[in-house]
Amino acid sequence: MNLHRAVMAAALLAAPPLALSNDFPTVARAEYVINCMQESKATRQEMLYKCSCTIDQIAKQVKYNKWVDLSTIALGTSIAGERGGVIRDIKDGRQQIASYRELQAKAKKACFIDE
User: Fold this and answer.
1) Which residue among 2, 24, 48, 56 sits deepest, i.e. has the most Cβ atoms within 10 Å of its Cβ?
2) Where are the domains of the chain?
3) What digits encode the pLDDT tens for the residues 74-89?
4) Angle 13-11-17 (CA atoms, 0-180°, nearest 5)?
5) What is the pTM of this model?
């Protein structure tokens, strides 16, 4: 039995680090689902499930802090003036925005949300 535990521990340590789906706070998940539902013209019930699925898919791919960074940069670029300029001038900002959009698009596709 001890050999089995040692093998399991070694396998877990050798595995690449994955984002934990429970890394996202409940409030952040709820805010995402509410915003996602408001953007859709489908029924509330249908979108409740699809939007919940989407944030779960995102949470499987990235840690919460990374998601906050990506979404802040992507959404902050639309701010006019100097405040928006600060976000637009972030190094690798365009790459991060593309990463955010790709992550979101893949999650929506996996959860059957048509864009």
Assistant:
1) 24
2) 2-110
3) 888 777 777 777 666 7
4) 45
5) 0.74
